[in-house]
Amino acid sequence: MSLKSLFKVNILRGSLLLLIYLLYSYTGTITTYLFRYALNALTRKDLTTFLYWCSVEILVAIVSSIFLATSTYLFNKQIQQYIHMLRDKVIHHYYQNGDGKVAKMQNILNNNMKILTDEYAKPWILILSSTLMLLMSIGVLFSMHWSLVIATVITCIIVLDLPQFTKKATARATKTASQKNAAFLKTVAEWFSGLNVLRRYHAVNRLQLALKQDSATLATANKNKQKTMSIADGLNGLGNSFGQIGIILWGGLLFFHHQLDFGGWLVASNFAASIFDELWDIIDSITQIKATQDLRDELYTLTQDNTETDSEEGAAPVAFSVKNLVINYGRHQIKYPDFTIKAHDKVLLSGDSGTGKSTLLKAILGKLQPAAGSIEYYNRKNELITPDYRQIGYVAQDGVLFPDTIANNVTMFQHYSEVEINRVINLVKLTDDLAKFPQGINTTINMDTPNLSGGQQQKIILARAELKSQDLLLLDEPTSAIDSKTSATIIKSLLASKQTVVMIGHNLRPEVQKLFDYQINLKS
Predict the structure, then answer these.
(1) Which residue has the higher pLDDT, 189 or 380?
(2) CATH of domain 319-521
C-alpha cells in the first residue's frame, strides 16, 4: 500500500479530491480570519457591522462543511476501490502459489486491511487537509506580524521531531498485535473444524481453554499496542500544548507593544491553537503510518508477486514411475517400493493405515517434495516430461464444496454443454439424488446447515473430476460415504474410461477389486 498507488487507482477522482480539500482548507481559514473583524466591531460596539461579519462567517462555514462532506465521501470511495484492488491481488497471489493457511489469509484480507485503512490511508488524508490548513494559517499569521510565523515555524520543527522517539516501539507493537490476531484465527480454524467431534465427546472445556489462551495473548498484544500508542500520543500532546501556549504568549506581547489589535491577538491565538491542533493531527498520523511499515512491506510482497502461472511450462502426464522414493511426513519417514504406472492402467492402491497411501498421492501431485528418490512423469508418447500438476485429476478424502449451486460445483464455474454435464451426473449416479430437490441441479449448497448427505457430496466431487476428464486421475477413497452397491457401480463406470486411474480403497468387495488391472499393496 502506498500513497501514490492510492491516488492512481482513480486519477480523476484523486485530483478532484485534492482540489476540494484545498477549497475546504481555504474556506476554513477564511472563516476563522473573519472573526477578527467581528471582534473589532464588538469592541467598538458596532452591532450592525458585528452582525454582518457573523453572517458572512456562517455562510463561509456552511460552504466549508459542504466541501468537507464531499471530500470525505470521495475519499471513502477512493480507499474502498483501492482496498478492493489490493484484495484481488492478494487472492490472486494465494490462488497462484497455494502457500497460505486460511487463518493467515483471513488475517491479511480482513484485519490487516482494516489496520492499513484506519492507520495508513485515513491518516494520509488527515495529513493532507491538516497541512493545507496549517500553511494557510501560517500565511494569515504572516499578514498580522512576521515574528508570529518565525515563532510558529521554530516550534513546529521541534514538535514534528517528537514521533522519532516512539517510531520503533509503535511499529513493533502493531506488528505483534497483527501476528497474535493471525495466531488466534489459526486456533479458531483448527479447533472449529472439528467442532462436531468435540460435541460428540463433550470436550467443550478443551475448546474453551485453547481459545482462552490465544484470546488472552491477543488481548495482551492489543493492550500493549494501545499503551504504546497512548504514550506516543501523550508525548506529542505535551509538545503541542507547550507550542500553543508559547505562541499565545508571544501574541500577547505584540498586543501590549501595540503591534496587534485586540481582535488580531484573539484571532492569532485562535490560529496558533489551530496550527498546533493540525500539527498534532499530522504527528499522530505520522506515528500511525510508521507503525504500519511491517504490514505494508508484507502486503507489498504479496501484491507484487503476481506473475501469471497459467502459462508455466509443463505437460499433462498420463503415466508415472516411482524410484527409490522417500517422503518425510511430519516426524515420520515413508519409504516406497519402485513401480511404474503405464498409460490407461487401472490400479488399486491398498495398505494398512499409516503406510503412506494418501501421502503418495500428494507427492504425485507435487504437494510434497521427496526426501530421496524421484517420481518421473510420461506423456501419451511415453516421453519423459516436466509435469503440469494442475493437469492431474484428484479427488481427496475431504473434498471441498462451495456455497453455490450443485451445477457450479460440478462445472467449477466453467462452461460445459448440458450433454457433458448430464453424462457425468449419470456416471456417478447423481440423477436420482437431484430429483429429490425442487430446484434439481440448480439447488444451492448450504454450508451452515448441510442439505447434502456425505454420499451426495462425494458424487458431486466425482462428477467434477470426471467432467474435467484429465488423462491421469488419482482417487483417495472417493466412494467411502456411498453405499456398497452404488459404489461398485460408480467405480466400474470410472474404470471404463480411457484415463489412467490410481485409486485408494479400503474393504472393497472382491468383485470390485477384480475390476482393477492390478493392485499395489503398501507395507510399513
Answers:
(1) 380
(2) 3.40.50.300
